DNA sequence: GTGAAAGCGCTAACAT
DNA sequence: ATGTTAGCGCTTTCAC
């Protein structure tokens, strides 16, 4: 025989629906329905219950609801690296779009410990979260297993280009084309020796951008000779380092297409440090259009990612996948070439 | 009489502990204990259960556990504005520190809709999350009510300076002193007309930094005449706008202390656009030490926030507040003045 | 229009 | 060393 406390009179208890029910003099089911705005409750009762809830300081417990509903209204966002402004800039819109659909977001930052992402896949598999939004090309191994096993999971990938992975809906831009556009612009400005600062060699994003560079050079009949490719990375530090390497070359390029804005920042800083003028001595272009690119000296030519669209479409797709199990084909969004002083022949 | 499904043979069900128990031929309590690594389970049984869990593709359901334990291991982080790199830069460390303590984080971005934060306070009040980390001086009204009502909640505030709010533990730097240090440095470089680009006038952070500026000027016997205070904001755009205003003044300042790095970026870009050289014509200093400040032209003198310490101490305090209900006094961390070319007399 | 009761998946007394 | 059982707070049939 369990001893039942007749009235739970603990002072600092968190109020539950039962408390509200007691105050309003109704049952918990009525409270639940009233608070959910379900039909067969007369306005008078609804009022009374709302009042009681307020009086009790009641708020619904997320876990009890999620357990019961088998749906949490939480989306997990996997972010490789918050230090790259691209991600927070995207996150702003993701957060907004998710909120507008009634979803909350949990974030998992994988920069330091990629293995960590596997733990979050479990959350999805256990039904603790409703869906996952990947913003990196990295895909947790455990997720790959599940997809390989034919399991259908609400996952959307955006920002980073997809490797040939079926089973994960993607929302992205045409990275190759975007890179092509930058180099095409440089070529049309009359630059002949257009170098490329390549990102991490195995990074799909970096590979795509390099491909665009090569393609544009070919189309303009320009050489993509090995000394025009400089291996670098996605950080300012690596951009700075690349500048030193370039300076050691016998012949300087007259333009450099950097695989992202951050490396362009580092490169430009270092080139200027060596007394070179941008764009008079060397033109530079980047990729991402971070907010600083507009105010730096000189303002940087770059590709603007449709971050807001990406975020909205991604969330919309994820929602559809969660709720209707639909909308699972890929989307390519338009990018925009932003031409600024760093690439203009004077 | 509830009809009990004898064996739940739905194909795509999410596996539960009961499934694992059935496979391993034990009860769910044994599974629970084994998976939690609790003592009285022999190694052999533990192995068998681990094997069964793997086979079933089992992962624990967060909501069921949280409901039962009345503890979610989730911390909510309130972030005013992700577009200000200060916040993602701090978030990196928050995320890391939380993860190391076994906490997950949910974020609530309040830039667009501040009222939204109230909804999240409910989560705390309902026991759906364990604690809240505020990274802004803005405090949700509902939270204020609760604190005023004497309710004790696990909340920590960091990054932004605290207004006179008792009941919320703070982890921060001495903003006034930090601003003082910057201006003191400028004065020691021999600058006489040291202007200040003020942030949003009602923002506590902006007020503190302005106070530091005034104090340092006074200590050096310099004037804080009204024409040396330029009302601006925390964004690049506002920094740019301020440059125009400065140019219209009859007498230019010889140094400008900006209330943050971002406005300094905008200011410098605009001043250079007007043909002024930094620091030869006007020295500039900022506040925050964003990563771009080191590579810009010229590199920017600024105050480095101890973001990592802030994050770690905040999480540590929050954890203590949640688990032991202790450690609720304020912490002041050391800042660091970073002197770079933008403020050096040549 | 409203209430009683079952049950979501888990953990922890309490039994054995 | 392991099983039985109650119950966390909620939603939702089903009955009235």
TrEMBL record, chains A, B:
Gene3D superfamilies for the chain: 3.40.50.2300, lambda repressor-like DNA-binding domains
Keywords: DNA-binding, Transcription, Transcription regulation
A Pfam cross-reference name: Peripla_BP_3
SUPFAM superfamilies attached to this UniProt entry: lambda repressor-like DNA-binding domains, Periplasmic binding protein-like I
Signal peptide: none
SMART domains cross-referenced by the UniProt entry: HTH_LACI
A molecular function GO annotation: transcription cis-regulatory region binding
Domain of life assignment: Bacteria
Sequence ranges assigned to domain HTH lacI-type in this UniProt record: 15-69
PANTHER family: HTH-TYPE TRANSCRIPTIONAL REGULATOR GALS (PTHR30146:SF109), LACI-RELATED TRANSCRIPTIONAL REPRESSOR (PTHR30146)
Protein name in UniProt: Transcriptional regulator, LacI family
Organism: Rhizobium hainanense
